[in-house]
Amino acid sequence: MNEDTLIQVAGILVAAAACQWLAWRVKIPGIVFLLVTGIMAGPVLGVLNPEKMMGDLFFPFVSMSVALILFEGSLTLDFAQIRGLHTVVRNMVSYGMLVTWIITALAARLGVGLSWQISVLLGAITSVSGPTVIVPMLRTVRPNQNIANILRWEGIIVDPIGAAMAVLAYEFIISGSARQALGHTMLVFIRLVATGTAIGAVCGYGFGMAIRKHWIPEFMHNLFAFSLVLGAFAFSNHLQHESGLVTVTVMGIWLANMKDVGIEDILDFEEHISILLISVLFIILAARLNIDELIALGWGMSFLFIAIQFLARPMNIMVSSIGSSLTWPERHMLAWIAPRGIVAAAISALFATQLQKAGYPDAGVLVPLTFFIIISTVMVQSVTARPLARWLKVAEPTPNGFIIIGANQLARGIGKALMALGFQVQLADTGWDQVIRAKNEGLPTYFGNPVSEHADRHIQLVGVRGVLAMFPHEAVNVAAAIHYRLEFGTDKIYILHSRLEIDRSTADRMSIENHGRILFGKTASYPALATDLSRGGQIIITKLTEKFTLAQFIGKHGQKALLLFAVDKINRLYVYAHDSQINPEPGWSLVYLLKNGEGSH
Question: 0.90 exceeded by the pTM?
Answer without folding.
Answer: no
